[in-house]
Amino acid sequence: MSEDTKRPAIRELAGVFARDLRKSDSGRTSELSESLGFLFAEKAERDTRAEDFEAVNARINQLIESPDAIPSKFRDVANLADLLSGDPIPSLEEARNKFYQDPKVAEVVTRTIQKAAKEYTAWANVNWTYPSLGTPSSGALIEGFGAFLQTLHGKEGINRAYVMSFEEVLISERPDSPLAADVIGWRMVEEKFSFPQELHQIIDALSQKYHILASSVKID
What we know:
Helix content is 69%, strand content 0%. By secondary structure, the protein is mainly α. The chain has one domain (9-175). It is globular.
């Protein structure tokens, strides 16, 4: 573990991811590395995102405690609850501890971030329309946490189910979060029709708020 064990988990993980990406694939993920480095250094940006991230995960945990009562707009939360067999999502601090205890977890998470950065270049690259330099880091955090959960439980499909679940809850219950501003541009607009219909109006409203053109074409 890092010598500075008092570091907030989000700062520690951001620093580790930035370092590993620079070492392994500096050409393809250099801007994401820059964003992670920014998140590592900027307390206000980091803490706000970490607080909202933990709040969304806590809400998902609350929902999966009663899977039969999960609203249809949180369709993927119901799927995630089934995949996790009712187990709660760990905190960032717990994830950090596991990250250092199990080299396989660290390897899979870093590899997943690299893969996602190549496939979803919109969020991996710094864009002048983003609310801050830290915006691409949100993609790394969400995708990386999904990979962590899938590795932890050893079940295919958890990564995708977690990412979808997180975004469904985020835009529904914390639309003013900087995380919502982050995700609406680099993924949700392009995949609008992958989300439950009840959320389409929210996606449209947020895309207008952040001046992002929502897709009118269904993506299979």
